[in-house]
């Protein structure tokens, strides 16, 4: 009965002590599954000119998707993005966005044109043609009801609605500024983002009327995405990346901590916790906790990324300038590389830690690297970079972590060190 009053903190300490004892008697390797979350560039040169910018990507399921870009480029995949084939386009204008409601029925917006298909893109036909109009974002609730945003001369823009699959359109919102993005969660409820005052507007009647919810002023925004009626995100930036989140349907927005310099272009979530954002210089960010933490993923490209789409947490693509196509490649890898070794040259103080953790090792100043904090199941939570010449110790704020056990990994060109960490 002596342990009846043991607190959770004491239990954690006891478990931690036991693990340290195991290390001390020679069980220095503990295997944990770690997820290698990276994006693999595809050799797109065989299907698209490398000088062509690709502007949007969309999937209807894990296997079937489309990419659109400059010079009338339309690409289709039927194997999850591993291979892409050209589809015939009736125009050589550039395309901005693509959307499908099923594997057969879809639309493409572009400069001076709106295209539609009813056979999966085997043939595309023109629904609208206007030499001085830019058709921007597109979203459909079903095969008949949909919305597009348009950009006109003198910075005028409209939100248009159709109820006949795109044959005819009526303007439901017209104002100064450009409506650069749309996000709908059903046939009635949606949001649009305007460049005028960086304004967020909402409809709850299928786009018949719109209400201004927020004007965010001095931040340049490029995309909006809602996972449900309350939870949504905005991304953008000018000198640095910006992500804002709302939990009350768009009335109030809170900036999420990023610490990245590159602006973001697109954001996409597969549920209210799991999402990605992509932008300038090949930047890809990932969250698995609704945006409380964002981890930069390896994109293996420096080209600007214009769109990102995932059909689920394990399959997706990103596209960008100069024919860039990236395929998501999350792999749970095992073996020597991901065995956790208690490296005593890596000093963590204090451990257990409450708020600020200090790290040092003998060669800290000699080379640059990265620090990643994982859960014991291999989920990355915090990642930060350090430069050559950094004076010890390095400081890491872990105040927002819940109490428990974590794995801290330091990786440089010549070292790969991991220690167990206890958070009080």
How many helices does DSSP assign? Answer: 1
Query: What is the overall pLDDT average?
Result: 85
The general outline is globular
Which architecture of the largest domain per CATH?
A: 7 Propeller
Low-confidence stretches: 1-9, 11-36, 332-343
Give a verbal description of the structure.
This protein has 424 residues and is mostly beta strands. The protein has 2 domains: 8-33 and 341-423, Immunoglobulin-like (Sandwich); 37-332, Methylamine Dehydrogenase, Chain H (7 Propeller), CATH 2.130.10.10. 4% of the residues lie in helices and 50% in strands. Strand 8 and strand 9 form a beta hairpin. Strands 7-8-9-10-11-12 form a 6-stranded antiparallel beta sheet, with no helix packed on it. The chain has a 4-stranded antiparallel beta sheet with strand order 2-27-26-25, with no helix packed on it.
SSE topology sketch:
Elements: H1 8-24, E1 29-31, E2 34-41, E3 54-59, E4 65-69, E5 74-77, E6 85-86, E7 95-100, E8 106-117, E9 125-140, E10 146-152, E11 156-162, E12 170-176, E13 179-184, E14 190-194, E15 199-203, E16 211-215, E17 221-226, E18 232-237, E19 241-246, E20 254-255, E21 264-269, E22 275-279, E23 284-287, E24 295-296, E25 305-312, E26 315-320, E27 324-333, E28 339-341, E29 347-349, E30 356-360, E31 369-375, E32 380-386, E33 394-397, E34 404-412, E35 416-423
Antiparallel strand pairs: 1-28, 2-27, 3-4, 4-5, 5-6, 7-8, 8-9, 9-10, 10-11, 11-12, 13-14, 14-15, 15-16, 17-18, 18-19, 19-20, 21-22, 22-23, 23-24, 25-26, 26-27, 29-30, 30-33, 31-32, 31-34, 34-35
